[in-house]
Each structure stands twice: as C-alpha cells, then as structure tokens.
Amino acid sequence: MCGIVGYIGAKQAAPILLDGLDKLEYRGYDSAGMAVYDGKKIQFAKARGRLKILRELTHDGAKLPGCLGIGHTRWATHGVPSNTNAHPHFNEAETIAVVHNGIIENYARLKKMLVGKGYRFVSETDTEVVAHLLDYYYEGDPMDAICKAMQRMEGSYALGIIFMDHPGRLYAVRKDSPLIAGKAEDGCLIASDVPAILKYTRDVYFLQNEEIVCMEAGQINFFNIDKDPIEKTATTIEWDVSAAEKAGYEHFMLKEIYEQPKAVLDTLNPRIRNGKIEIEELGMTDEEIRAIHKIYMVACGSAYHTAVTAKYVFEGLARIPVETDLASEFRYRDPILDEGTLLIVVSQSGETADTLAALREAKQRGVRVLGIVNVVGSSIAREADNVMYTWAGPEIAVATTKAYSTQLVAEYLLAMKFAEARGTVTQQEIDDMLLDLRRLPQQIELLLDHKEKLQRFANRYVAARDVFFIGRGIDYAISLEGSLKLKEISYIHSEAYAAGELKHGTISLIEEGTLVAAVVTQKDLYKKTISNMVEVKTRGAFLLAVTNEGNTEVEKAADYVVYIPETNKYFTNSLAVIPLQIFSYYVALGKGCDVDKPRNLAKSVTVE
Ligand code: M6R
Fold first, then answer.
1. Is 603 marked active-site?
2. Is position 593 annotated as part of the catalytic site?
C-alpha cells in the first residue's frame, strides 16, 4: 500500500525523501511524489510509474531545495494511477500539502460539503478532501485544523502534512494506517515503515490511533485528538539496515528464500529450552489452555495458508477443534464466539486491515486474541492480548517466503504446547517432534542446494497458461501456498485443489501438457493422491510431484519428482514449500516479471 516519508531538519529534504521512498518501494505503488518548502513556497513534483521517473524529474531531488518535505508512493484506490492523482495533494492556494495512506471512507460526503462551500477539486482521490478540509478549518493554528478535520474523517489514514505558514514544523497523524516517527542527528522523520528511516535512526516511535506528532526545532512532540500532550517511548530497532537490502542477491525474494533456515531457527530457538517448549508470551497457564474448547485461526493470503496447515496440526496433536477463516469473511459473518474460544490471528506485517478488524471484533466480544506477528510494534502486535513474534526479520519481497516459514513453525510449537497441556501426546512424542523441528533449518538448506535443477524445470514452464496444484490434508494446504506463489509473481493462472475434489469439476480443465503439481507427503494418503495423479495424467497432464524421500511409488505417475527429507508428518509443509517457492521464482524470472514487486500487489494491505 502507499508509503509515506517526511523530513524536517538541517539537510536538504528531497534526497532523504527519495531515499526513504526507495526503501518503501516493496509496499507496492503506481506513482510517486514529493512536496518541499523552499523558503518561499511549497514546490512539488509527481510522476506516474516507478520512483526512478520522479528521480529523473527532480534530478535526484536537486531541483527541490528546502529542508522540510513530505514524500509518497501511491497505490491507487480512488482514481486511476496518474500524475494528477499522485500525492501530495493541496488546498487551492497550495499552502497546505498532504500525503496519505489509507481510505477516507466518507470522502464523497465531505467532498460534497466542500464543493458546496466553493472548494474546487482537481483529482479523483479521497486524499484531496483532506487538504481542502484542513484549509476549511485552518485559522492560523495547524493543530486546531488537524484535530477538527480528524473529527470529521471516517476510515483509515496516516497523513504527513506541511503548512506553508509554519515552515518550521512537520505534522503527521494516524488512524488505522501505520506511521512511525524518529529523531536523527540532523532532523526528524516520519514514515510508514522502519526501513525508510533506519539509515538515520534506530529509535522509533510507533504512533497509536488518533495520535498526532508535531516535529519542530529538532523536537518530537506527541498529542492526542484533544490536543493534550502525550508521552511516548521509543522502541529500539534491533535489526540492521543491511537486513532490508539485497546483499548481492538478484531479488529480495531469492534472498529471503535463502534466509529461511536462519529465520526458522531464530523463531524456534528461544522457545525450546532444555528440551522443553516454553512460550512465555502466550501468557496462559496449562489450566487456561485446557479451558479453551475452540480455536479460530484468522488471516489473509499466505498467512491464512499457514492457518490451514495449523488446523491439521492442532486437531491432530491437541484434539481441539480449529476453524480457519479468511479475515475478510470472518469480520462480517457474525462468528460464534463464546467463552472458551481463542482467536489466533496470523500476520507478517501486523497491519493487514481485515486481520486487524477480525482481532478487534473478537476483542470487543470478549474473546482472547493471540497474534502471531512478524513486525514488532505493529498494530496487531499492540492490540492482541498476547503476541508470539516470528523472528523472520524484515521481509521486503511482496511474495512472502521466510515469514510464511516462521509462521508455520510458531504454529507447530503452539499446537505442541496445547497438546502437552491437554495430555493428548506423550512425552516421547514431544521429544521426537522437537528433534524433527530442530532438523528443519538444515533440511531446508539441503533443499536450497538443489535450486539449479528446479530452475531448469521452471524454464520449461514460463509459457504455461494454467497450472494446478493438488494435495490432500496438509498437502492441500501446501498446494494453496504453491499456487498463490506462482500466480502472484508470474501472472500464470493457477489453482489449488484438494486432490479428491478434482473429479467434481476441475478435471475438465486438464489438457494435453497442462502442468499439475502434486504434493504427496502424507503417508496415509499416498495411495489416494497417486490415483488422482493418474487420473489427470491419463487426460494429458504433465505431473510434477513433491514427495518424501523413499516414496518411489509416486514415480509411476509423476514425470518429474522432487524429494524432501524425512520429517514428522505434521511438519512436511516446511520442506515441501521450498521447491514450490523456487519453482515460482524461476518461472517469474524466466518470464521477465518484476519478482519483488508484482503488478497490482502491495506488501501490506492496510485498506479493506
Ligand atoms: O502481512 P500479512 O501476513 O497479514 O499479509 C497477508 C497477505 O496479504 C500476504 O500473505 C499475501 O498473500 C502475500 N503477498 C503472499 O505472498
């Protein structure tokens, strides 16, 4: 989604803004712009397309002098991607400049009111309403205008604001869209996400809903919507700026695929102590765990796919019913949430609007919420009753890989903890599973060593039109992720099907040469899935199989087999997904797609 950067200080703002926007590129965008106060007026530049166009237009920022500025990458919601719709937006006199992430849901009503009062609009965006609304309320005191505008706006917003009359101040506010602030040596910064300002400071303030920040004379002051000053403490970001850079890899996605062994290890290690599972952050005694009779797992996209896997693991190990839901469905379907229900929300960014809304819905109804989150200090991390962090580090590629893998292992640990507390597994079983968990990082490394073979195979499919992924049980959950990975970055149509469901319609889509990827890791289901593979093969499909070492049976039906090392049946996803990620990466690369920033997609979906 949109990215915001702002700077006020002793240095020229524009190069800092461009640098910050660079770091936010991963969020997805279709246009970019900046506004800088040059000592006399607010100058600006906007361009549809990639950031490099804005760089060229401004000669890397040199054409926009001044030490106070705001910058933006826009992911279009209201109005097509165009120069006019790109941010910043202004009041008519161009004395107030605004950049915005989010959606002003009542913008049509506000626009009507403002048009009635003589305001003229030039763009199709909801953001322009904010600029005019600020102008409408502005009588010399920016804080006053901001607070009044906030009372009128509905929806989600993170805003960076400049008032030409107050060139020594940079304002920003947030409601339901992420925003951070930080103080560097030569100035103060705001941004949508940490990588944008990490080069300048490690101490970051996370703004809460309806908080306002005013930066002036090297000071950062925070206020609530009633203009009362508030105290905030900075969080020190532990990871290094290099963690958000490519480190010699061609793409972030490839780098992140390779970071999986470490990410998995980092997520497991602090929670396995002296051969025992210790999840302190769960904040629940064994008795409290036993009082839970139902779990909802709610998430979006790949995070949801890990929840589908977790359902099998929780139910299999802990014998507790788990319902999985897409967050966008859960929030509107009036789910049955009673005492004894636990909601687990899973999110890399911790900012996904639907997942956050699901969390709020559950909390409002008195249900305990556990967040499995990657981004420290994110909205979900702050609002959940308890947070279990995945330690994947910053994930930049839009297509998730390492965060997905860490979510899986966090969920395995949780399921094992529940199983232990509920007495549904023996100590021996736990010990064996812990051994298998500890082996995962090394086994992932082994699979990564075979990437060339998969690259050659992938090169044969760059022209594919449709690809199907099939599997049963956990293998179906893996198929969901394999399919999403392929389609989101290569733009090849692909679908995942529970293998047993093929005959109910999908099989009619199989033609001579159609690639079907079968995931076959569940021993008790081998035979069943192999029969489904034979069914599609006899209709002309080309079969790729991902299966356990030793399952040579599969070769009867498969044309190409990738073997994964032996592990516990509940953990196979962590291994089987690796070849599928590599396959997708190389298909997309072969097609010349923008692997890290696929079209139309955003890394963090902060609007509904
Ligand atoms: O940040 P979140 O984990 O909440 O994001 C959820 C989905 O938007 C995300 O997993 C998306 O599906 C990925 N692009 C998939 O690679």
1. yes
2. no
Q: How many CB atoms lie within 10 A of CB 7?
A: 32
Ligand 1 nearest atom to the CA of residue 400, by list position: 16
Q: What is the DSSP letter of 189?
A: E
86: nearest Cα among 36, 50, 137, 40: 50
CA of 378 to the centre of ligand 1 (A): 15
The helix (run of H) or strand (run of E) holding residue 355 is helix 353-364
CATH class of residue range 450-595: alpha beta
Q: Which residues contact 25 (CB under 8 A, 6 or more apart)?
A: 3, 51, 73, 597
Q: Which among 495, 451, 492 is positioned nearest to 471, based on CA atoms? A: 495
The domains of the chain are located at 3-238, 246-449, 450-595
Taking the centre of ligand 1 as the mean of its atom positions, its distance from the CA of residue 303, in whole angstroms, is: 6
CB of residue 298 inside a 6 A radius of ligand 1:
no
Q: What are phi and psi of 601, to 5 degrees?
A: -105, 155
Q: Cβ(215)–Cβ(169) under 8 Å? A: yes
- CA-nearest residue for atom 4, ligand 1, is 347
Mutate to test the pocket of ligand 1, among 390, 402, 605 (most ligand atoms within 8 A of CB): 605
347 touches ligand 1 (CB under 6 Å): yes
Residues of the chain with pLDDT under 70: none
Q: Is 498 helix (H, G, I), strand (E, B) or coil?
A: strand
Contacts of residue 421, defined as CB under 8 A and 6 or more positions apart, other chains included, come to 286, 289, 290
The token pair at 259 is: 């970071």
CB neighbour class for 133 (10 Å; exposed up to 12, middle 13-18, buried from 19): buried
Pick the CATH number of 3-238 from 3.40.50.1820, 3.40.50.10490, 3.90.1150.10, 3.60.20.10: 3.60.20.10
Distance 301 CA to ligand 1 centre (A): 5
Token pair of 600 as six digits: 């139309």
Cα(107) to centroid of ligand 1, in Å? Answer: 27
What is the pTM (predicted TM-score) of this model? 0.81
Question: Ligand 1: does its nearest atom lie under 6 Å from the Cβ of 398?
Answer: yes
Q: Which CATH architecture describes the domain 246-449?
A: 3-Layer(aba) Sandwich (3.40)
